């Protein structure tokens, strides 16, 4: 045969092989499998009783292999984890934190999701590395945050969703959804847009934030439950709610004008609350004074009429006496408060005509009018 001419064996013992090439010495030579098997057999025989394979030795090897195999089922569940045990790929049970055991592979396997940890997803904003500040800074994401309200206004909403794996829902979390974080983010953005689309812009920017957060959380939970995602939404927090940056200055002017309007209305209401009770009090006072004057005038008129009737009765009994009495009382009232000088006419020539005698005499107080009964008693 042709290769025999190359000498020594089928490939020849010379410097060339059957195709005219020499031995390849560029890389390492592969290990000799027979040599490795022989060495492993020798070492195993050294550990076996009697130095050779026997029934006892094979049994010990099998027992050791089974012990090692069963020991592979020991696993530890960390404090924020939850063990999900699978038997031939099918969900069997949950394993709480601590040292646990499952049947060795391939009978059972375990998955360790972070089921007890509260996860956070930010929508409308993201953290980016800032070399200038040597840290991370917040950047707005308009394609996520700009939303249309029910009154056809645009609002910029940044919010955060806190979520975790629902108790008893680890199996659904692992097998029913492929990308849990992406699913939660998509559902959160969709729910927020739906709630904002049903609302007016003014309540969203002022006092309805808590209501909006609650509605978004309920809608997200309902949607995720319909997916059997095994996810629980713990909280929705609206971080920033503003109009778009292009119109925020004009919007703030409108808000300031509305605040001034409310302030003026409150001041007017305060003035009305103060002045109306005062006016009502004065009107009540005037009415009470008029009522008192009425009662007084009526009482005086009745008293005067009763007095006149009494005098008339006396007049009918003694007309002359009564007439004189009325005359004297009238003259007393007329002359009681006037200054009077009485002097003898014969001595009049001794009085200086222009002497102010009225200023030289002391003034007497006017006598109090006497009642009818007293006057009658005096006479």
Can you give a write-up of this model?
With 379 residues, the protein is α+β, with helices and mostly antiparallel strands. 48% of the residues lie in helices and 18% in strands. The chain contains eleven helices and eleven strands. It has helices spanning 33-47, 55-71, 142-145, 170-175, 180-197, 201-205, 209-226, 248-317, 319-335, 357-360, 372-378, and strands at residues 74-77, 83-87, 90-95, 98-101, 108-111, 119-123, 125-130, 135-140, 146-148, 154-165, 231-242. Strands 6, 9, 10 and 11 form a four-stranded antiparallel β-sheet that branches. The chain has a three-stranded antiparallel β-sheet with strand order 3-2-5, with no helix packed on it. The chain has a two-stranded antiparallel sheet with strand order 1-4. A hairpin with a 4-residue loop joins strand 7 (125-130) and strand 8 (135-140). The longest helix has 70 residues, at 248-317. The radius of gyration is 59 Å and the shape is rod-shaped. The termini are far apart. One of its GO terms (molecular function) is peptidase activity. Residues 369-379 have a biased composition (Low complexity). Residues 72-255 form the Band domain. It is a single-pass membrane protein. Residues 247-274 form a coiled coil.
Tell me the Rg in angstroms: 59 Å
How would you sum up the global shape? rod-shaped
Helix content: 40-55%
- Main sheet summary: 4 strands, antiparallel
Question: What is the mean predicted local confidence, pLDDT?
Answer: 75
Class derived from helix and strand content: alpha+beta
- Count of runs of 4 or more consecutive helical residues: 11
Coiled coil: 247-274
Region (Disordered): 1-32, 357-379
Subunit structure: HflC and HflK may interact to form a multimeric complex.
Subcellular location: Membrane
């Amino acid at each position: 045969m042709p290769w025999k001419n190359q000498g020594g064996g089928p490939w020849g013992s010379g410097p060339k092989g059957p195709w005219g090439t020499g031995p390849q010495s560029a890389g390492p030579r592969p290990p000799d499998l027979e040599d490795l098997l022989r060495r492993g057999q020798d070492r195993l025989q050294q550990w076996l009783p009697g130095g050779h394979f026997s029934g006892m030795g094979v049994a010990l090897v099998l027992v050791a292999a089974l012990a090692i195999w069963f020991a592979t089922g020991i696993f530890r569940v960390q404090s924020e984890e939850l063990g999900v045990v699978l038997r031939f790929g099918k969900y069997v049970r949950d394993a709480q934190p601590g040292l646990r055991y499952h049947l060795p592979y391939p009978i059972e396997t375990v998955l360790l999701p972070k089921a007890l940890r509260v996860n956070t997803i930010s929508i409308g904003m993201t953290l980016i590395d800032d070399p200038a500040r040597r840290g991370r800074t917040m950047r707005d994401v308009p394609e996520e945050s700009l939303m249309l309200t029910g009154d056809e206004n645009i609002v910029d909403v940044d919010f955060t969703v806190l979520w975790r794996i629902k108790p008893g829902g680890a199996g659904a979390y692992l097998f029913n959804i492929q990308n849990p974080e992406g699913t939660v983010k998509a559902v959160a953005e969709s729910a927020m847009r739906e709630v904002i689309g049903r609302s007016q812009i003014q309540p969203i920017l002022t006092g309805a934030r808590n209501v909006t957060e609650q509605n978004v959380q309920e809608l997200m939970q309902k949607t995720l439950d319909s997916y059997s995602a095994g996810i629980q939404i713990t909280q929705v927090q609206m971080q920033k709610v503003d109009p778009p940056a292009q119109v925020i200055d004009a919007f703030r002017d409108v808000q300031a004008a509305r605040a001034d309007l409310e302030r003026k209305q409150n001041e007017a209401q305060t003035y009305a609350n103060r002045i109306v009770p005062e006016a009502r009090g004065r009107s009540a006072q005037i009415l009470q004074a008029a009522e008192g004057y009425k009662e007084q005038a009526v009482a005086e008129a009745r008293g005067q009429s009763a007095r006149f009737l009494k005098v008339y009765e006396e007049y009918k009994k003694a007309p002359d006496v009564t007439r004189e009495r009325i005359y004297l009382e009238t003259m007393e009232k007329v002359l009681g408060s006037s200054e009077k000088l009485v002097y003898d006419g014969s001595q009049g020539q001794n009085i200086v005509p222009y002497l102010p005698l009225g200023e030289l005499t002391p003034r007497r107080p006017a006598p109090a009018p006497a009642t009818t009964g007293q006057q009658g008693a005096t006479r």
